[in-house]
Amino acid sequence: EYFADVHARRCADDAARNEFIGTLSYIVNELVENAVKFSMGDSVEVTVSIEGEELVALVSNPSTLSSVDFP
């Protein structure tokens, strides 16, 4: 929410700000939900950063398995 708020302050009005925060929250939530749903390990890592004018969100589920066998 912090990252959304920082960028949202640049929005012209409250409606644009609320739309931006809602959209960003939805996207990050979907990424986390899918990482948890399809995780092969015990954890999900979320990294969010600001790089210049871009907000970068990385959601991953590192596996502790050395290999995966599919039928």
Write structural notes for this entry.
The protein is α+β, with helices and mostly antiparallel strands and 71 residues long. It has two helices and two strands. A two-stranded antiparallel sheet has the order 1-2. A hairpin with a 2-residue loop joins strand 1 and strand 2. The model has no long low-confidence stretch (mean pLDDT 75).
Describe the structure using short key phrases:
single chain, 71 residues, alpha+beta, two-stranded antiparallel sheet, 2 helices, elongated
Provide a concise account of the structure shown.
This protein has helices spanning 2-8, 14-37, and strands at residues 45-51, 54-60.
The global form is elongated
State the separation between the terminal residues, measured CA to CA.
Answer: 41 Å
Largest sheet: 2 strands, antiparallel
- Let me know the average pLDDT: 75
Q: What's the order of the H and E elements?
A: HHEE
Helix content: 40-55%
Radius of gyration: 16 Å
Strand content: 15-25%
Oligomer: single chain
Give the number of helices: 2
User: Quick one: how many beta strands?
Assistant: 2
**Helix and strand composition category:** alpha+beta
Low-confidence stretches: none
User: How are strands sequenced across the largest beta sheet?
Assistant: 1-2
